[in-house]
TrEMBL record:
<dbReference type="GO" id="GO:0015192">
    <property type="term" value="F:L-phenylalanine transmembrane transporter activity"/>
</dbReference>
<dbReference type="InterPro" id="IPR032823">
    <property type="entry name" value="BCA_ABC_TP_C"/>
</dbReference>
<keyword id="KW-0067">ATP-binding</keyword>
<dbReference type="InterPro" id="IPR003593">
    <property type="entry name" value="AAA+_ATPase"/>
</dbReference>
<dbReference type="GO" id="GO:0042941">
    <property type="term" value="P:D-alanine transmembrane transport"/>
</dbReference>
<dbReference type="GO" id="GO:0015808">
    <property type="term" value="P:L-alanine transport"/>
</dbReference>
<dbReference type="Pfam" id="PF12399">
    <property type="entry name" value="BCA_ABC_TP_C"/>
</dbReference>
<dbReference type="Pfam" id="PF00005">
    <property type="entry name" value="ABC_tran"/>
</dbReference>
<dbReference type="InterPro" id="IPR051120">
    <property type="entry name" value="ABC_AA/LPS_Transport"/>
</dbReference>
<dbReference type="GO" id="GO:0005886">
    <property type="term" value="C:plasma membrane"/>
</dbReference>
<feature type="domain" description="ABC transporter">
    <location>
        <begin position="2"/>
        <end position="249"/>
    </location>
</feature>
<keyword id="KW-0547">Nucleotide-binding</keyword>
<dbReference type="GO" id="GO:1903805">
    <property type="term" value="P:L-valine import across plasma membrane"/>
</dbReference>
<dbReference type="InterPro" id="IPR027417">
    <property type="entry name" value="P-loop_NTPase"/>
</dbReference>
<protein>
    <submittedName>
        <fullName>Branched-chain amino acid transport system ATP-binding protein</fullName>
    </submittedName>
</protein>
<dbReference type="GO" id="GO:1903806">
    <property type="term" value="P:L-isoleucine import across plasma membrane"/>
</dbReference>
<dbReference type="GO" id="GO:0016887">
    <property type="term" value="F:ATP hydrolysis activity"/>
</dbReference>
Length: 265
């Protein structure tokens, strides 16, 4: 599904991503973890076309997408959410999700201008699809109100619904649990699994190790822009290089919240 080979990204002297290789296969949930500044978001930004890599190759479903524009990459089936929530605050909940459908909804200028029956049908299709995804993410309340009036956790769900409305084959979630309370995190865990059950592969950047260890098929660990481990949660959790990256040499695993959180299963 996603194949990243020897990815490089430099900001002046800083090698944010330094030879990163990883893949996400069909139907997989892969988490990308690492200490702050390890290069996770930079790698995501390269994959989604927000940054142009300085080296390496990114392929999506066999097609080379290295350095392509975000819209071109999205059209190939990759959808994302953002670390800092990006919703259209002044649009309604419903319109936020309808916006996602415009990636595949074909509307001709002629039909739009004249409000032809074909245009009205396509608008209805967008609305139906938006309701479907809002149901899917579990947002039951009023959908005509402005999205910025929703609690933060619900805005996050709107963002995921909008990403799903693009009908992606691969979904990239950048810290989806940030700012969520315990109950919301549990719901997010179920939601991520249900998305995967639809046949959508998922790559996830996340600091909440409880969630990562619970939901991931595979975990890729970055440090200083390089991959230092790639394996099942159980394997990665006990990998000495990972423990050292998080804790520094000689420190015990009990000393960080990340590792404590990892021991939920
Ligand atoms: N736009 C930028 N300009 C310059 N340096 C940057 C820029 N974005 C990121 N960096 C640097 O690149 C490195 C990787 O940052 P990045 O945000 O990708 O890490 P991260 O693993 O996502 O961190 P976090 O977990 O804190 O979000 C850091 O040293 C960071 O300071």
């Amino acid at each position: 599904m996603l194949d990243v080979q020897d990815l490089q990204l430099a900001f002046g002297g800083v090698r944010a991503v330094d030879g990163l290789t990883f893949r996400v296969d069909e139907g997989e949930i892969v988490s990308i973890i690492g200490p702050n500044g390890a290069g996770k978001t930079s790698a995501f930004n390269c994959v989604t076309g927000f940054y142009k890599p300085t080296g390496g190759r990114i392929a999506l479903d066999g097609a080379d997408i290295t350095g392509r524009r975000p819209s071109a990459i999205a059209a190939r089936g990759l959808s994302r959410t953002f670390q800092n929530l990006r919703v259209f605050g002044d649009l309604s909940v419903l319109d936020n999700v309808r916006a996602g459908t415009h990636l595949w909804l074909r509307q001709r200028t002629f039909d739009v201008l004249l409000h032809t029956p074909r245009y009205r049908r396509s608008e209805q299709q967008a609305t139906d699809e938006a309701h479907k995804w809002l149901d899917f993410v579990g947002l039951r309340g009023d959908r005509t109100g402005l999205v910025r009036h929703l609690p933060y956790g619900e805005q996050r769900r709107v963002e995921i619904a909008r990403a799903l409305a693009r009908r992606p084959a691969l979904l990239l979630l950048d810290e989806p649990a940030a700012g969520l309370n315990h109950a919301e995190k549990a719901e997010l865990l179920g939601l991520i699994r249900r998305i995967r059950d639809l046949g959508i592969a998922i790559a996830l950047i996340e600091h909440d190790m409880g969630l990562v260890m619970e939901v991931s098929d595979r975990v890729v660990v970055l440090n200083y822009g390089k991959e230092i481990a790639d394996g099942t949660p159980a394997r990665v959790r006990t990998d000495p290089a990972v423990i050292e990256a998080y804790l520094g040499r000689d420190a015990g695993p009990e000393e960080t919240e990340e590792v404590r959180g990892a021991r939920t299963d």
